[in-house]
């Protein structure tokens, strides 16, 4: 099944006036489905393989805006640093009925003693943003149009061992996520957005992936402000049955994503797809073209494909800059057997690096956990089992970090989320360390200790005060018979 999911579409009002209805800026489905089932009632039922609920309808704001006849159509910003100074290279495109062809203006700004954009806990002042003010004047020096763009001054570089921000290697402590919650589902929920970022900061996370589609702009805005690094993912899930139609849709979706998010300092990497069927021989030419398309649009960030295939049995790894692997040892395979987890994780991650000589991230791992279910000895679906399985992964990750090419761990998932109904899903996917209404499971406290310990060790972050909770203070213990 080949599937591309939701993306934002902008439309010119005049294109729709002949229909006698206003459409403006809308959310549209841009979906390529190859599987529909005719059910007994005679209606057609959608069928899909991805493991999250496919909400329908308009779930983000609809905006009508006007422009002058000549207007600022696009701004592209690339930043650089030199010692303590920053540089902002910008390109402005002006369009409109008064212009025969698009007018392009390019320039370079120097910022002395700049405040660089840093990720959360890598600097005492993370997420620092400047405001780039662009103004358009006519021949009479009258203001025609203006636009204010938040800008974070930072660099991204990468090689076969690392990804760096401002020349400092990063280690991703993060999550896979979904736009999903109780009551509102995928609908935009501003208080929930704030809650989620507060929980990320509480845990000590510095990153997440927009699995498996572009997130709302309001969510992305706060990531830039807080200093959260983003792997920005195209809405391509389980791509299969490779065709020219799928390739065209995939490229179009990537173009829209990169055009929207190219200036965001928090976006550090592009993800071309999640769990595509890259074991197919035809995937080689397909992903070669996809990665080339991304690089033609933006060469300033590394590209990844989030993959659940064995690196020896897939055909995209030779084109990407960073390998992102999804592994579920101890859950979907070897269920309940935590003793084999460490060796299998290390073998899988090492193999990606050996084959392609690129940095590696574990983009998904975890176990479904029913909150409040406690079983000793640990047993699948219990909170105890989730803790034990996570701990085994931590041990493997630390051993891999010592080898110099392993650059991140992103648990699946930040919070429980809704899925299609099935016998394998009790109220949805329960792999979250938080419940669907954003309350912690036992694993949230374990992961918090892990992420803050990494932040302290790698970035010299100060531990929160509540890490020093009082437990026992008596220096002498009396034995009683």
UniProtKB/TrEMBL annotation:
GO terms for molecular function: beta-glucuronidase activity; carbohydrate binding. Signal peptide: none annotated. It is an enzyme of class 3 (hydrolase). It comes from the Eukaryota. GO terms for biological process: carbohydrate metabolic process; glucuronoside catabolic process. Residues 161-454 form the Glycoside hydrolase family 2 catalytic domain. Belongs to the glycosyl hydrolase 2 family. Plays an important role in the degradation of dermatan and keratan sulfates. This is Beta-glucuronidase.
